[in-house]
Amino acid sequence: MLACITGAAGFIGSHLCDRLLQDGWEVVGVDNLATGDRRNLRDAEASARFRFVEADVAQPWDAWGEQLEGAQRPQLVLHFASPASPVHYERLALETLAVNAAGTMHAVAFATRNAATLLYASTSESYGDALEHPQRETYWGHVNPVGMRSCYDESKRYGEAYVTTAVRKLGIDGRVARIFNTYGPRMDPADGRVIPNFCVAALRGRALTVYGDGSQTRSFCFVDDLVDGIVRFATRAGLGGRVINLGNPDEYTVRRLAEVTARLARVDLRIEARPLPADDPVRRRPDISLARELLGWEPWTTLETGLERTLDYFRSAASS
Ligand SMILES: NC(=O)c1ccc[n+]([C@@H]2O[C@H](COP(=O)([O-])OP(=O)(O)OC[C@H]3O[C@@H](n4cnc5c(N)ncnc54)[C@H](O)[C@@H]3O)[C@@H](O)[C@H]2O)c1
User: Fold this and answer.
1) What is the pLDDT, as a whole number, of residue 279?
2) How far is the CA of 143 from the centre of ligand 1 (A)?
3) What is the pLDDT, as a whole number, of residue 155?
4) Which is deepest, 202, 235, 238, 311, by most CB within 10 Å?
5) Which pLDDT score is estimated for 191?
6) Long-range contacts, 265-273 (Cβ 8 Å, 24+)
7) What is the enclosing helix (H) or strand (E) of 163?
8) CB-based contacts of 264: which residues, under 8 Å, 6+ apart?
9) C-alpha to C-alpha distances, 234 to 113, 251, 270, nearest whole angstrom
10) Which of 33, 38, 80 to mutate to test the pocket of ligand 1 (most atoms within 8 A of CB)?
11) Distance from the CA of 194 to the center of ligand 1, in angstroms?
12) How far, in Å, from the CA of 164 to the mean position of ligand 1?
């Protein structure tokens, strides 16, 4: 069984590689290292069942794709390549649009040729600054189509439209996971997201910066839990055409997250309030009824446990 994972050198992609290798799959990981790091693949590359291809998946896949298909047909395509944090997608705005538009079109064509299941990594950002709370898959979203985040939000919405249209028109087995904030080891410490920011600041004994008054909420899913949900969604029969939220429904204010991080890192909590970034959603929480029903899945890692493991990772990354 062969799986092709785009964005393999990234935070989630590398954990997916490890998990599928553990489950006995052969894995081809594709990445152009735009925001990822080959060091995330150290464990995967120790396996003889893993191969790495350095390529931009927004460009035609012929050169490496045909070679791959010639040797063995992949059964699973997991399209995770895309800058994912505001810092990265604002810097790589046109590339983000390209990887979710052209990249998704190439992923669909590749999956179609190989009669493979395709799972597309979409995002809770598809819901934008949601007017419905918690967000169910049936909610259409509230997105600024021309704002700073639109290169991400709208390209993910296009990717969703492309995959679900391909299911209808081409009969492919395409699935869309709407992933909510995920955290854990291998996050880029400089990607500007709240958990790495807090962990890195706390480990350096610095104040934790909270935007606004810290009352905005987020749900944080530990990466191992998320990867388990993705594997269930990608490998269960009969879920073609489905769009499913994957995330942790436990809602924390950003202020509470700062308090827990400071306590675990044993630093004093000093909060500096800064203005909220543009289009920053105020509340975000998944309704995971569908994932519970169809996948028998829900996250199990507590925020404390997940944060401890993330802090351990940042501590050891800083000293290596
Ligand atoms: N981390 C989260 O909380 C979260 C939430 C919702 C959705 N997602 C989605 O999950 C996926 C992975 O996110 P992540 O947090 O691991 O981000 P990441 O930046 O760590 O990983 C993305 C990977 O994609 C690669 N990549 C980007 N453009 C590429 C291209 N054109 N060709 C080949 N490789 C390319 C990058 O180099 C990187 O290794 C993304 O699609 C993201 O939108 C993540």
Assistant:
1) 61
2) 20
3) 98
4) 202
5) 85
6) 265/199, 265/202, 265/203, 265/311, 267/202, 267/205, 269/208, 270/207, 270/208, 271/207, 271/208, 271/209, 271/210, 271/214, 272/207, 272/208, 272/209, 272/210, 273/210, 273/211, 273/212, 273/213, 273/214
7) helix 150-170
8) 202, 304, 307, 308, 311
9) 18, 26, 43
10) 80
11) 17
12) 20
The catalytically annotated residue of 89, 120, 127, 152 is 152
What confidence score (pLDDT) does residue 280 get? Answer: 64
pLDDT of residue 271: 72
pLDDT value, residue 278: 65
**pLDDT for res 18:** 98
Q: Give residue 9 CA to ligand 1 midpoint distance, Å.
A: 9
- CA–CA dist 200, 160 (Å, integer): 34
Q: What is the pLDDT of residues 48-63, one digit of tens each?
A: 999 999 999 999 999 8
Instruction: For ligand 1, say whether the CB of 92 is within 6 Å of any of its atoms.
Output: no
Q: What is the pLDDT of residue 94?
A: 98
Q: What is the pLDDT of residue 269?
A: 76
Give all domains of the chain, ordered by start, each with its CATH number: 2-183+221-249+286-300 (3.40.50.720), 194-217+250-281+304-319 (3.90.25.10)
Asked whether 56 lines ligand 1 (CB < 6 A), one says yes
- Which residues of the chain are modeled with pLDDT < 70? 277-282
Tell me whether residue 158 is one of the annotated catalytic residues: no
Which pLDDT score, from 0 to 100, does residue 208 have? 81
Closest-lying ligand 1 atom to the alpha carbon of residue 34: 37
